[in-house]
């Protein structure tokens, strides 16, 4: 099994692989907050089954489920609270897969502007390289997630051909070599 980086320390938060029951529950809550914020039906992605089976397709040795938690207390972010997440899984359409997919990048509103999203992307890219992936892809929504699209661009993600069929108008497909 590939060794994962156990913790990444940042001012005010840390990022780690979610492994405990509590961490998986926190991830489930973050995923739910994310999809509530999106206000879209994700049933075409098998979202309910994904949520019920966590860590599921995101578990090692081919995936990662990362959680960011606060390491200092503030009025809006008590120490230990889950403030962000990101997931990584092999892309189904390639076997053996050298391409992975980033999923469910999310930070709670109180943590936005603290660098959590950037740190989560840094970490998920690092995990993907350690797992031997050569390319990472993701999907996002152009109008609803303009800030995320800009952030992905800063990490070298560029538009690519769609890698699955989606009923959601305005879906962007992005990718980059690792």
Automatic annotation (TrEMBL):
Record bears the keyword Transferase: yes
Entries under PROSITE patterns matching the protein: GNAT
InterPro entries in the record: Acetyltransferase_Enz, Acyl_CoA_acyltransferase, GNAT_dom
Keywords: Acyltransferase, Transferase
SUPFAM superfamilies linked: Acyl-CoA N-acyltransferases (Nat) (SSF55729)
Molecular functions per Gene Ontology: acyltransferase activity, transferring groups other than amino-acyl groups
Pfam families in alphabetical order: Acetyltransf_1 (PF00583)
Domain N-acetyltransferase: start-end pairs: 13-178
UniProt entry tagged with the keyword Cell membrane: no
Entry-linked PANTHER family: FAMILY N-ACETYLTRANSFERASE, PUTATIVE (AFU_ORTHOLOGUE AFUA_2G01380)-RELATED
Protein name, UniProt field: Acyl-CoA N-acyltransferases (Nat)
Source organism (scientific name): Glarea lozoyensis (strain ATCC 20868 / MF5171)
